[in-house]
Structures are given as C-alpha cells and as structure tokens.
Amino acid sequence: MNNHNLIIEEKATFRVGNAFYRPQSKVTRDLGVLAATIYKHKHGQLRVLDAMTGCGIRALRYYLESGADEILVNDSNLDIKPILEDNLQDILFLNKVKISYKNANHIFFECYNNKDYYDLVDVDGFGSPSPYLSTMLWATKIGGLVYLTSTDGRTGTGHLPEKSLQVYGSYARSHPACQEQVLRLLIGSVLQQAATMELGIKPIFSLFTGQTYRVMLQLLNKSNLTLDNYGFIGYCHECGHYKRISWHQLGKVQCVQEKNINPYVISGPMWLGNLHDRDYLGEMKTLAKEWRWLKRVELLSVMENELDFPPYFYTLGEIGKRGKLDVPKRSQLIQSLNDQGYRAAPTHINAEAIKTNADLNICIEFSNAISRQKTL
Fold it and tell me: Which domains are assigned to the chain?
C-alpha cells in the first residue's frame, strides 16, 4: 500500500482517495464492530455483506477486529476501484473478501436467488434508506443482523411529512423528541416490511449521532408486529404533553391536560418498543471494557439506561418554556425524579433531554422545587 495520506482507525490502515469516508461516523463503526464480534462469539461464524463500502473501512474493521470469516464488499461507484482494492489488498490475498461494483439491490437479490445469506448486512448509504428497507432482508440470514443508516433527518423529524409517507409509510410530524422519532420510524418500517415476509425484527441498538441515524436489527423467523409495538405518538402543541396512541384510539383521544380540550398532532405508525436489547448491550459493553474503549463504555451505559421508558423524551428547553422557569441541570432533575419514586435517565439522543415515566407537569413541578431550593 502506498504510504501517502494513510489514515489509521483502530486496527485498520487505509487511504481515502476519491472514495467516501466520514471520520465523525467512527462511533457507528465502533458499535457495529462490537455487535459483530458478539455475534461471532455466539454463532461461531461471521459472514458480512458491506453493501455500500466506500473506501472499505468497515470491511477492514469487520475482518481485523470482529474476525469476519468472509466479506462481500460492494459499491456502485466503479471510480473507486483502485483505492478500494489497494485498501483491501491484504485480505484479498487471503481470499477472505470478494468485491463487486453493482447497485446494492442487485446484490441483495443475487444473494436471495443463490440462497447466499449473510450474518451481517451493513447498509450505510447517504440520504433516504427507502430503496433498501425490504430488499436488504433478502440477503440476511434468519437470526442475522442488519445495520441500516439514514442521513435524511428532515423527513423523519416531521419537516417533510408527505415525503415521510413515501419513505416510511408513516406520517411524521415535528415535536421536541423528533430525533428519537426517526429511529422509531426506521425500525417500524423494517418491522412492517419483514412482516410482509412473515418475518420479524428485534432492535439490538439504535443510535443518533450528529446527522446520522443507525439501527442494528436482528431478523427473526416469524412476524412480531403487534398493535402494542407498532402504533402512534401524539403531541399537544398547546401544552407540550405526549401520549402513546394505539390503533384503536385513533380519532378518539384528545389532550385534556389544560382547561381547553386540544387535539394531539399524531405521528406514525412507528416502532413503540425498546430501542435496544438489554442483554446484547451488556455484552457489547463488557467487550468494550476489555478493549479499553472507554468512551463507548460510557455511551453504552447511557443507552442501557434508556430502556423501558415511554417512546419519547422531554427537553430541558421545553420544560423551561412550558413552566416559565430557569431549568436546573439535567442531572439534578433526574436525581430529584428518581428520589421521589419516578424513573428518569439521560438519553444519548439529546444532551439536554431526559427519558422519564413522569409527565411534563411533574417535570415542571420538580424543576420549580429545585429552583426554589437554590434561592433559600
């Protein structure tokens, strides 16, 4: 390999050249490597399909760090062939990797037609993931993992609701917890697509970082879409309250928190269950400790604590605006809520927000109490 402009990321050494590489997405690659390594430990093998490889950094790391037995590397851009083959030359020599230059959907259907299913299908594209929400499943082994990306935040956060209907089959509206909504729309859309094949999915983890949304899902051998885990979120713009809304409640619920009865602005349908799998996260965190990936240990701890909460969060700004008060530190409000028997935790999605089973009025009440204590 030419040593000019070499980049090192963990165990991988590579050049970018005219291929795509986003240094800020290292955290998503780190979590992908951890999950893939756990899968290899559990199942004894790891065959990876990197459907949109760019410079090949993910393929390199899955081989060098996760111990992938075989990798199919694909990108539709033939112009990157020299840099990609240069980056992968060592594992090409070992016959551990195959390279193709096709549309990702072409590869997925080839895999299905040849009954060549992969343990991990990584679909890290730019923009909307809609062309791949169903087709990627055709290349995935039952029990295997799918790692999906969206960088199209405007659609899922409710700024383009009609486009959201096209992409996800769901109508997305804007509200303070809209970044979590994007993750839930992604999961819900794949859940629904899997159900059409009489298959199911389980979220392993869900991540929002910067402008990138990524979900790691496990493909299950039977559908698990239910009226309980696939539904709607209502938000009242008058008072700021949220409500989880089932299909049976559509057209029947209104916000009665204030003196006036107000309609909820409804988004959905979307995934309403947990964003992560507790056991899998725990194993990933243990491995991250072994590897001394301390920042990832911290992140995974926050993600563990996000489990078993309502499918939204409250921002400190919203609490302050609705309560007309100076907002306390996030840690103070969380501690106060937990001390009084509620459950509250930070969320990785927004550094100025909390997950809690308390409603907005309770959050305002406790914030006021903290502010009063400061003045005494």
Answer: 7-226+270-303 (3.40.50.150), 313-376 (3.30.56.70)
